[in-house]
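A reminder from the course coordinator: this example appears on the midterm review sheet, so study it carefully.

Given structure:
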């Protein structure tokens, strides 16, 4: 019995070692190739973009973007845009030469796109009073900020905003009907 426990503990120790070793290998930093070093040396704007985004990208993402640049699929401008979009949106985007209403968003700068992306909610929870009126609504956004709409002690609605740094602001809501809330629809089905 003691031998079995010792073998289990020993095997757990080895598996933990190999897991930590794998974790170290996964977090290896990207080392620029000569091609990339030359590109960065020749293009100040690309170097600025690369320095700004490299910490948000994986080694594979960076290698994929620069391989498309090396194969002349991306020019310098597309490479910069690819670095910024991938750091912001991950791999959930692509260049499309055809403009249609369903695949078009208009942003003048990457900062505008980032502001829009951070304004998209990641989760929302709503609770209602027994009479169906709003009790509390909490929305969490991609950048970590929160918006909470609830009643205060006097029965008036307030909107509490907590930004990504934890700073809190409270505003009184004059007309709750302006707040768009999806109410659940309940149907009773008789069998």
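Designed residues:
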């Amino acid at each position: 019995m003691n031998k079995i426990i010792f073998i289990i503990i020993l095997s757990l120790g080895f598996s933990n070692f190999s897991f930590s070793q794998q974790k170290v290998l996964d977090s290896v930093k990207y080392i620029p190739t000569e091609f990339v070093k030359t590109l960065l040396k020749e293009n100040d704007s690309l170097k600025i973009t690369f320095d700004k985004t490299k910490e948000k990208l994986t080694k594979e993402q960076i290698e994929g973007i620069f391989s498309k640049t090396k194969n002349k699929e991306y020019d310098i401008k597309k490479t910069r845009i690819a670095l910024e979009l991938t750091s912001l949106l991950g791999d959930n985007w692509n260049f499309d030469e055809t403009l249609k209403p369903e695949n078009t968003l208009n942003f003048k700068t990457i900062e505008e796109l980032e502001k829009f992306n951070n304004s998209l909610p990641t989760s929302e929870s709503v609770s209602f009073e027994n009479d169906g009126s709003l009790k509390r609504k909490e929305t969490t956004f991609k950048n970590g900020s929160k918006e909470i709409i609830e009643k205060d002690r006097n029965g008036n609605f307030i909107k509490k905003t907590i930004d990504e740094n934890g700073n809190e602001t409270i505003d009184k809501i004059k007309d709750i009907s302006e707040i768009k809330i999806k109410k659940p629809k309940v149907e009773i089905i008789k069998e």
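Residues 30-94+107-118 form one domain. The two ends are 59 Å apart (CA to CA).
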